[in-house]
Amino acid sequence: MVKSEDKIKKAQLQIPVKNIKIHQPNQVETYQPRDQIYVRKVSGIFQLLRQRMNFFFLALFALLPWLRYNDHQAILFDIAEQRFTLWGLTLWPQDLTLLAWLCILSAFLLFFVTTFLGRVWCGYLCPQTVWTFIFIWFEEKIEGTANQRKKLDSRQLDFDKFWRKALKHTCWLFFSILTALTFVGYFAPVDEVFINFFTFQASFALAATVWFFAFCTYGNAGWMREIMCLHMCPYARFQSAMFDKDTLTVSYDFNRGENRGARSRKIAHESLELGDCIDCNLCVQVCPTGIDIRNGLQYECINCGACVDACDGVMDKMNYPKGLIRYTTEHELQGKKVHFIRSKLVGYAIVLVVMCSLLVLEIVNRAPVTMDIIRDRNELAKEKFNGDIENVYTLKILNKSQTDNVYRLSVKGIENTKWHGEQEVMVKAAAVYTLPMSLSVDPYELKGYMTDISFVIELVSEEDDVSLEHESRFFNKR
């Protein structure tokens, strides 16, 4: 009896052993990081909406750099000149607060939309998604449907496969170069970018930048595709922090769809104890990230609605009601009341309104001209031959407007000040004018070693009344 109990205890203490496959030298093992996804073409209202939106914003992206305003490129982020031009607004490094406001505003707008409509940004407007679908369109036109592309990849290389692959990658590369040139055209004069690149007169920096962005576009949309969404995009990771049970997401109605199973359209599926899902897997075949939406909400889902259109088409053929897969909320699937207006959404809306108001207010109150005053550091003050005390300055006048303006300069704070230099200067649009000048004063007008003064700049115009004061100091000889 004791021996049998000891055997049982030893058996319980044994470490479980798992049989593994022993590697044979003649076997070839390959590592496949992912299965190739052959996205099947689908038509429907959401895909039509996505295509129209993609076309509109793609056309906007391509045309905006070519628009002209007041004889200059309407939108130009000139990093070399440290000057951003947006139609009639010119932003300089001193105006980076406006750019910060714009970035914060965009972030909260994204939070608001995500809380309400889920990841519609990813499915309808994200450049990665837009360019991926464009590249898939080239595949469909050159290599055929998803099944034809799969068969083409599985067979040996022949002339038909070679010319189709070569033409596809040529189209991808050409479209990537056009994309890169257009993108660089936002940061340099777009006409010069295209002319210099295609005439081989571009500088090394310009050519390298274009090829870098072309390579990124070709690699991301042509090869990586869903890898960018699944493993590299941070938005997919923190989106859950913005979701709640009233967020509209693409979801599968489990209660209506289960149990799954194939059936004939002539037989009532209720008699077979089957749900509306016929397990055709079309929702998986049309998904650009290759997920099965029937497994529930997943971070890989980009809310593009392709599975919704595919499932609605099947429901039409089976004479079932649409909406087995649809844009819905977790509360609606549970039969609970949906709250579209809720505290989180209202909070985001209030923040958006406040920030938009502050941004508009800052733009309206933005000074159209600024002036920097640089003193002569070698000698703060010197005495002239007639006994006057002289201070030397360098004025940098920045014209932030889009028109050439004439400005009148003066100084106040000390009586009987003598101005040596130009007092009326013409500054070109969105340019900086450097003016060396000096002030001299009778020492009897000075009450101490240092006197506060103000330089005044006024716009010489009958229409506008612009005046700006900038404080400085006037030093006396010790």
Element layout with pairings:
Blueprint (H helix, E strand, L loop, with lengths): L1 H12 L31 H19 L4 E2 L2 E2 L1 E4 L4 E4 L2 E3 L4 H22 L2 H6 L1 H17 L2 H9 L4 H26 L5 H9 L5 H21 L1 H7 L2 H4 L10 E4 L1 H4 L24 H4 L20 H12 L7 E4 L1 H4 L9 H22 L4 E7 L6 E2 L5 E11 L5 E8 L5 E3 L3 E4 L3 E11 L8 E10 L7 E9 L3
Antiparallel strand pairs: 1-2, 3-4, 4-5, 6-7, 8-10, 9-10, 10-14, 11-13, 11-15, 12-14, 15-16
Helix pairs in contact: 3-16, 5-7, 5-9, 7-9
Question: Which key features would you list for this structure?
Answer:
single chain; 478 residues; alpha+beta; Immunoglobulin-like; five-stranded antiparallel β-sheet; four-stranded antiparallel β-sheet
Task: Describe the 3D structure.
The protein has 478 residues and is of the alpha+beta class. Among the domains are: 244-333, no CATH class; 369-475, Immunoglobulins (Immunoglobulin-like), CATH 2.60.40. The protein contains 16 helices and 16 strands. The protein has helices at 2-13, 45-63, 96-117, 120-125, 127-143, 146-154, 159-184, 190-198, 204-224, 226-232, 235-238, 254-257, 282-285, 306-317, 330-333, 343-364, and strands spanning 68-69, 72-73, 75-78, 83-86, 89-91, 249-252, 325-328, 369-375, 382-383, 389-399, 405-412, 418-420, 424-427, 431-441, 450-459, 467-475. Helix 5 (127-143) runs antiparallel to helix 7 and helix 5 packs across helix 9 (204-224). The model is unreliable at 11-32 (pLDDT under 50).
